[in-house]
Automatic annotation (TrEMBL):
Residues 1-24 form the signal peptide. GO terms for biological process: proteolysis. PANTHER family: BLR1971 PROTEIN, PROTEASE FAMILY S9B,C DIPEPTIDYL-PEPTIDASE IV-RELATED. The lineage of its organism: Bacteria, Bacillati, Armatimonadota, Fimbriimonadia, Fimbriimonadales. GO terms for molecular function: serine-type peptidase activity. InterPro entries: AB_hydrolase_fold, Peptidase_S9_cat, Peptidase_S9B_N, Serine_Prot_S9B/DPPIV. This is Dipeptidyl peptidase IV. Residues 216-462 form the Dipeptidylpeptidase IV N-terminal domain.
């Protein structure tokens, strides 16, 4: 075959070729294309979400619990209402769409398309179908499809969210009357008064004072004694917020609220038994409750004993304490005391109503499992193995069965994939109710007889199934997610990727987003979306038509999300990496994971790595450029917890334990002078989650260290990732510092 290439290349051609290769190698789009990249990124959410169908099912059950309906939103604005008979799995139209459209069109004197009925919600009441259309309420008699106008259903207003406040101040004048009507008790000032109904008051406690006052009372079931809790108030110190730009104008607005920080003196409690007949008061034998909420009694069937839960300060020990209300003697029925921490965020305890049995979740063997404490106070294992019980969804005391979710039990599967199981109280009869490969997001029917399961992975759309919870039998395949149009619009699903962690043995899981116009011959900077909070794992496992990472990738990046060591749901040893070690944030695993990704894919350029996150992720992203500047070059951090001494007590003492030098050693503020890369900080001035001064003090430390960085205060914003403006600033920062391009000049152009 003749060689069609010229034998000699001209200098001009060589120059053009070199430029082309350089552009391909760098992954930098020409400046003229960046504006179009922003337009694509900004439009991706609407484009993708409007071209995917049947990705979820929202079941509405009939009152008898044997039937349900749901709505499918289809192409071209069409929709259908589907009805299902649960036990048989029979499905079909929930009503005759054609007849209803004809009846409604005749009544409204205008055509109504049966495939585009002018309502989205319906309600069945016997033979009647209720709905709102054309600004009116309607009820349709399904026997003959006659319509009658009714009052439209009022729009439900969401309940107001009021801040939680445990009011434990003294001097409550509430009267606590015994159920038999013979005695009355009341807290007056700091102490407890009792008296026979109609008789004279008597002060039964003498130990109450300003620094230790009685605050709550409960009568025993036999009305012979009172359980009383005495409060020793902590400092109850305040945090302050300034709203610089109130909507009404005028002066800035100052607010303050009680907000306990690690190391603060907090409220503690001791429990007393009061005997009105003898006019005696005695403190129970158990140690005072040194942390948490005011304890309350859970009575056993004999009416004499009660239990309460006690978490020690620092989260190093949890106990279920049983108290004899006659003698005041106490003992621990359950006792968790690992060498690190008890994870309060995954705790579960269930108290039987017909017995004194207790179902309890514990990590005492290194894995989250269920145990049964029987009436004889003997502990029995229900589940076991190198896997994790995630949640308990239903405990049936009569059938003595438990419905729960778990992950990591099935070999050869992503250990984060959730499945649903059923097991007997004695640990027998374990049934996998959702055996298909994938992550299972399911809903129980009102009586827990049926399960509507949506199984998917990040790169495959969901299948929606109806199953019976007694044995897992598949009753019907309800729907299949439809992404044909989505693919036609250029959708690129994220890729799951697995690499070994710091120990060379443990698999670390993450996902990879690439731009829709991805070219494997180019090299792309990498951006990590990080949140290493130990209270969960965070890499998505189910399908979604759009996530914000896809829009960021569209600008010319590879965007990744990873669950490193120190996060939850992989067993106690994996989780314990975070203990007194939040600055670790799984970075050794994350760096190895991205290095392995680059080794497999030449398009991954790990000489240009950025990172972003919010809240704990804000702490992590800043920590990346402080503690690992050799790898992470650019960071954007929103509302970060930059010093664990300056954030809410429970979250920080949960993972960092009691106050010690390790708090300062791991602080972003303490280590601000280590900054080498590019850093952009956001903070909402009204942040009610992480006090804004956490970011302000990091800014102060960076200034004192003479460091270059960028800082954006968002007036009026609460705990936030920056909103639309912050998103644009974050994208601009990465485009400028990782792609080496100037973003569009937004002051001279239309909104992004």
């Amino acid at each position: 075959m003749q060689n069609l290439l010229p034998r000699r290349l001209t200098p001009v051609f060589l120059g053009v070729l070199s430029l082309s290769v350089a552009l391909a190698g760098s992954g930098k789009p020409p400046a003229s294309e960046i504006r179009e990249s922003y337009r694509r990124a900004n439009g991706l959410r609407q484009l993708y979400n409007s071209n995917a169908y049947k990705l979820s099912i929202d079941p509405h059950w009939y009152a008898d619990g044997t039937r349900f309906w749901y709505r499918n939103d289809l192409r071209e604005g069409k929709k259908e209402f589907i009805g299902v008979l649960a036990e048989s799995g029979q499905r079909g139209p929930a009503f005759d769409h054609e007849r209803l459209a004809a009846a409604l069109g005749k009544t409204l004197n205008k055509p109504v398309d049966p495939a585009k009925l002018p309502f989205s919600e319906i309600a069945f009441e016997g033979d009647l179908l209720r709905f709102d259309a054309d600004g009116k309420g309607w009820k349709c008699k399904l026997s003959d499809y006659t319509l009658e106008e009714t009052t439209p259903k009022p729009r439900a207003r969401p309940p107001r969210s009021e801040p939680w406040n445990q009011d434990l101040h003294p001097a409550s004048l509430r009267e606590y009357e015994s159920k038999d009507g013979k005695w009355v008790a009341q807290i007056e000032g700091f102490n407890v008064m009792v008296w026979p109904k109609g008789g004279a008051k008597s002060q039964i406690t003498k130990s109450g004072a300003a620094d230790g006052y009685f605050a709550r009372l409960w009568w025993t079931p036999d009305d012979k004694r009172i359980v009383a809790v005495r409060v020793h108030p902590g400092d109850r110190r305040l945090v302050d917020l300034i709203e610089s730009s109130p909507a009404q104008g005028g002066r800035a607005v100052h607010t303050a609220r009680v907000y306990d920080l690690p190391g603060d003196k907090v409220d503690t409690f001791d429990i007393w038994i009061l005997d009105p007949e003898k006019n005696e008061a005695k403190q129970i034998s158990a140690d005072p409750v040194d942390y948490g909420d005011l304890p309350s009694p859970d009575w056993e069937r004999d009416g004499r004993h009660f239990t309460y839960e006690k978490m020690d300060r620092g989260y190093g020990r949890w106990r279920l304490i049983e108290v004899d209300s006659v003698t005041g003697e106490s003992k621990a029925l359950l006792d968790d005391h690992p060498s690190t921490f008890v994870d309060s965020t995954s705790q579960f305890i269930w108290y039987a109503k017909k017995s004194d049995e207790i179902v309890w979740r514990s990590e005492r063997d290194g894995w989250g499992h269920l145990y049964l404490l029987d009436d004889k106070r003997e502990l029995h294992r229900i589940t076991s193995g190198p896997w994790v019980v995630r949640t308990v969804e239903k405990v049936d005391e009569v059938a003595r069965t438990i419905l729960f979710t778990a992950s990591g039990r099935e070999a050869g599967e992503d250990p984060y994939f959730i499945r649903w199981y059923r097991v007997n109280f004695d640990g027998t009869g374990l049934v996998d109710l959702t055996p298909e490969h994938g992550n299972h997001v399911a809903r129980l029917s009102p009586k827990a007889d049926y399960l509507i399961d949506s199984v998917s992975t990040v790169d495959s759309p969901p299948v929606h199934e109806l199953r019976r919870t007694s044995d897992g039998k598949l009753l019907a395949t309800l729907e299949q997610g439809d992404i044909r149009d989505l693919k036609a619009k250029g959708f690129r699903a994220p890729e799951p990727f697995v690499a070994k962690g710091r120990d060379g043995k443990t698999d670390i899981y993450g996902i990879v987003y690439r731009p829709s116009n991805f070219n494997p011959r180019k090299r792309y900077p990498v951006i990590e979306n990080i949140y290493a909070g130990p209270q969960d794992s965070f890499v998505p496992k189910s399908f979604a038509s759009w996530r914000s990472m896809a829009s960021l990738a569209e600008l010319g990046f590879i965007v990744v999300q990873i669950d490193g060591m120190g996060t939850r749901n992989r067993g106690k040893a994996f989780h314990d990496v975070c203990y007194k070690n939040l600055a670790d944030a799984g970075f050794p695993d994350r760096i190895l994971w991205m290095t392995a990704l680059a080794a497999k894919y030449p398009s991954v350029d790990i000489s240009r790595v950025g990172v972003y996150g919010t809240s704990a992720g804000g702490q992590n992203s800043t920590g990346a450029v402080l503690f690992h500047p050799e790898f992470y070059k650019v960071a954007v951090s929103s509302c970060g917890c930059h010093d664990n001494r300056m954030d809410k007590i429970w979250w920080n003492e949960q993972w960092m334990g009691l106050m010690g030098p390790h708090y300062a050693e791991q602080s972003n503020i303490t280590n601000a002078g280590k900054l080498k890369g590019k850093l952009l900080l956001f903070v909402g001035e009204q942040d009610h989650n992480v006090p804004p001064e956490s970011t302000y003090r990091l800014v102060d430390a960076l200034i004192k260290a003479n460091k270059d960085f960028d800082f954006l205060v968002l007036p009026g914003s609460d705990h936030t990732d920056g909103g639309a403006y912050g998103e644009r600033k974050r994208r601009d920062f990465f485009v400028r510092n990782l792609l080496g391009l100037e973003p569009p000049k937004w002051n001279e152009e239309e909104k992004p």
